[in-house]
Amino acid sequence: MQELFKSSYYWLDLAVGFGSPVVLFALVRLGAVDRRNWRLFWLGACIGLVWEIPIFVLSKHTSLPIIHWIRELPAHYAVFLVSHTLWDGAIFVVGVWLAVLICGRPVLSRFRWGELAVLLAWGQITAFAVEFSSVTNQAWAFIEGYWWNPTLLHAADSPITLMMQAVWLIASAAFYLIALRMPAKDGVAGAND
Questions:
Q1: What is the CA 146 to chain-centroid distance, rounded?
Q2: Beta bridge partners of 153
Q3: Residue 1: pLDDT above 80?
Q4: From CA 52, how far away is CA 156, in angstroms rounded?
């Protein structure tokens, strides 16, 4: 089973990335979640572009690569760049849903430390899980040796690094602060009651 997952890893990556806006759009159309979630998804995807573009472009077109692909990508790297950006949007929206579950409604209506803490913790957990999943399934890994991206630990002979933990810490705080300023005209974020 592990080998099947590993051999399908890139295709599953693309399926989740490109499937996430489709599923979210369907949930919004069915009334299962508020329309505000759609805007939050795209806010998260735009924030994700801040690191996805440099990671992919520098790693493919410069002598300062940030990641290396352990196995060859089955499609052009730009397809994966878009997919990972969509993943980022989905991760942020799921973080908002967790804030609804943990902190209660309404969320993103005023600054609350609990909501911010949920988004920060979720960002850290997912950043670690994504990197760990990638290296243990021999997909991609961050390159060791840069002073600005120290290695935290090794898994499957590849580094788990600090950079994405720092990125998701800052990005989660930025997402929260920007989302607080978004109009809530179509309700609060999270699943409908």
A1: 23
A2: 160
A3: no
A4: 23
75-131: per-residue pLDDT in tens?
999 999 999 999 999 999 999 999 999 999 899 999 999 999 999 999 999 999 999
**Is the CB of residue 15 less than 8 Å from the CB of residue 9?**
no
Q: What is the DSSP letter of 181?
A: T
Q: Which residue has the tokens 């002598």?
A: 63
Angle 61-66-70 (CA atoms, 0-180°, nearest 5)? Answer: 90
The token duo for 164 is: 């994405």
Measured distance CA(179)–CA(186) in Å, rounded = 13
Q: What is the CA radius of gyration of the chain?
A: 17
CA–CA distance, 165 with 121 (Å, rounded to integer): 10
Question: In 10 A of CB 78, how many CB atoms?
Answer: 12
3-state SS of the chain: helix, strand, coil percent to 5? 65, 10, 25
Q: What distance in Å separates the CA atoms of residue 104 and residue 115, rounded to the nearest whole number? A: 9
pLDDT number for residue 97? 96
- Cβ pair 65, 140 in contact under 8 A: no
**What are the structure tokens assigned to 4, written together?**
């099947």
